[in-house]
Design goal:
With 172 residues, the chain is mainly α. Helices cover 74% and strands 2% of the residues. It has one domain: Arp2/3 complex 21 kDa subunit ARPC3 (Orthogonal Bundle), CATH 1.10.1760. The chain is globular. The mean pLDDT is 95.
């Protein structure tokens, strides 16, 4: 699976499309977790809150990525009580790290490939796991996304590659 040439889009905060695209990705991050929570431990196992943040950040850059990363967990918490308040800061940190790393890798490489997405996912999870350890002082909590959430990481990589490869040919 070769890499595909990719042109990330960077919209300013004064462009109304920034907020429209962010809204679309936030809605995706509201709906997908609700579906995944129908499976026992589906949120912890499938890590759905990160999927559309990955797509938003990789294709549309840091602004849309961070809007999605920050507002998705907050809206989910306010509307559905998930993630619980004690987990919310950790999700905000990990989502923000994902947005920053994905936007940087996309902008730097101008390619979408499985390896680029794997680097993105592993990097935000490693740094996020370290941050989670410092926030919770719990090794099992910090390692949870690598153990229980491994299927979700694979879905982010493979599903993200498929969606981003499809979007690579579209100018927005």
């Amino acid at each position: 699976m070769r890499s595909t040439t990719f042109q990330p889009v960077s919209l300013s905060l004064s462009n109304y499309r920034t907020y429209l695209f962010s809204l679309v990705f936030i809605v995706g991050n509201l709906v997908l977790p609700q579906i995944c929570h129908l499976v026992p431990d589906g949120g912890k196992m499938l890590l759905p809150i990160y999927f559309f943040t990955l797509i938003a950040s990789y294709k549309f850059g840091i602004r849309i990525g961070l809007l999605t990363a920050l507002l998705s967990p907050l809206c989910n918490h306010l509307l559905f009580g998930m993630p619980p308040i004690n987990v919310l800061p950790i999700l905000l940190v990990k989502s923000s790290l994902l947005a920053i790393i994905a936007a940087y890798i996309a902008q730097y490489s101008k390619k979408v490939s499985l390896i680029h997405l794997a680097i993105t996912v592993v990097a935000y999870q490693l740094i996020g796991g370290i941050a989670e350890y410092f926030m919770t002082s719990s090794v099992p909590s910090a390692m949870q996304d690598f153990t229980l959430g491994f299927p979700g990481m694979i879905i982010q990589i493979l599903g993200g590659w498929f969606v981003l490869k499809t979007l690579a040919n579209y100018e927005c």
